[in-house]
Amino acid sequence: xxxxxxxxxxxxxxxIVAGLLASLLVFRLAVYEPPKAPPKAxxxxxxxxxxxxxxxxVISVEGDVENGREGGSWSRLRPGDSVRVDSLLRTGSxxxxxxxxxxxxxxxxxxxxxxxIRELTDSVHRFRLTRGRMAADYEREGxxxxxxEDGSGETVAETKSARFGVLSTGTGIAxxxxxxxVELHTRRQSVHVAGGExxxxxxxxxxxxxxxxxxxxxxxxxxxxxxxxxxxxxxxxGEAAEGSExxxxxxxxxxxxxxxxxxxxxxxxxxxxxxxxxxDPSGREKTRKVACTPPPAQIRxxxxxxxxx
Length: 309
Fold this sequence. Notes:
Elements: H1 3-31, E1 56-62, E2 65-68, E3 74-76, E4 82-83, E5 88-91, E6 96-100, E7 105-109, E8 114-120, E9 124-138, E10 145-149, E11 156-159, E12 162-168, E13 172-185, E14 190-194, E15 197-202, E16 211-212, E17 219-223, E18 232-240, E19 245-248, E20 251-252, E21 260-266, E22 273-279, E23 285-291
Parallel strand pairs: 9-10
Antiparallel strand pairs: 1-4, 1-6, 2-3, 2-5, 5-8, 6-7, 7-9, 8-9, 9-12, 10-11, 11-13, 12-13, 13-14, 13-15, 15-16, 17-18, 18-21, 19-20, 19-22, 22-23
């Protein structure tokens, strides 16, 4: 075999490889399409809250009742209004309002009270009682709970089903349960207040053991001012049941741990008595009038008679 014959197979192979490369180039440029990148997934919609917010509906209003927010404007509350989370409700000395939250929850706010709505969902209804009294008629609905806390949020009354009243006295918070049961607790201790019982938590203290709700309202008062005074009407010494709210001429009279109080009443022009009022956690009220001590006698006319001989 000569040299030319030996080179022929190699030349044929080279031609075949060149043809294959040319075909591959044509396919790549004219026919082949690279796979497209998968489209980016659309962002998922924000998850809906498992416990959507609800509203409280105003059923009735008596006297002076206002609705507002901390640091904001105030407006008169009217039947049919709805109040939401962060609403602040305050009542005057003659004010009262009833709210419904759903079909099985009713809340009443008494006179001279201030209540803020902290949370309203399908699982929790939470109110903060800064001062005064509120009551609830709360029927069971699944695991939903009602929480009423004091002004600091440290003491909480909690229930799933009960009729009860809560009174913030300025020196503590008291609970009186008519039916059902209420858990009254602080961070350190908790007590169960059953139907027909009441309990009191002194400010900064722990709940006292529940006792039976008294059949009558205790209020003992007297004037301890023995001598006439131009500046004082009376010095009132009194005694009231623990957990009650006592006012003298509209001003709160703090009770000591034994339920006693002492108030000096400044005399006002024409005043003849001081009005002492009490309100207990059950909502019962009583008033007493304490007569002012007469002011010192004043010399209005003086004549000098000279004896002559």
